[in-house]
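FORM 12-B: Structure-to-Sequence Request
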């Protein structure tokens, strides 16, 4: 009887440990995706002229440029792919 209770206790501990690991993994993934979206929003705010938004004063943009290399490359890539025939086709058919 005691060995049965010990086995059950070990199984319950293992289940709780696995559940905790899954929860932490999902929490990290959620935080990483939120961080990526915040970086994208920051990039659009600073480099708003790419999408037709008013941009911040030039001095602020120039001060932030060294930190914006990744976002600038991403924006340039999106501008380059915006003129592709397939993207034009999708925009004509209004496909999301």
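FORM 12-B RESPONSE
SEQUENCE OUT:
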């Amino acid at each position: 009887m005691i060995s049965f209770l010990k086995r059950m206790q070990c199984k319950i501990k293992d289940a709780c440990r696995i559940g905790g690991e899954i929860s932490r993994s999902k929490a990290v993934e959620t935080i990483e995706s939120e961080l990526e979206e915040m970086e994208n929003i920051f990039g659009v705010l600073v480099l708003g002229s790419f999408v037709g938004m008013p941009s911040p004063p030039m001095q602020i943009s120039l001060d932030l440029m060294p930190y914006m290399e990744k976002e600038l490359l991403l924006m340039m890539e999106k501008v380059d792919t915006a003129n592709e025939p397939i993207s034009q086709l999708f925009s004509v058919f209004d496909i999301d």
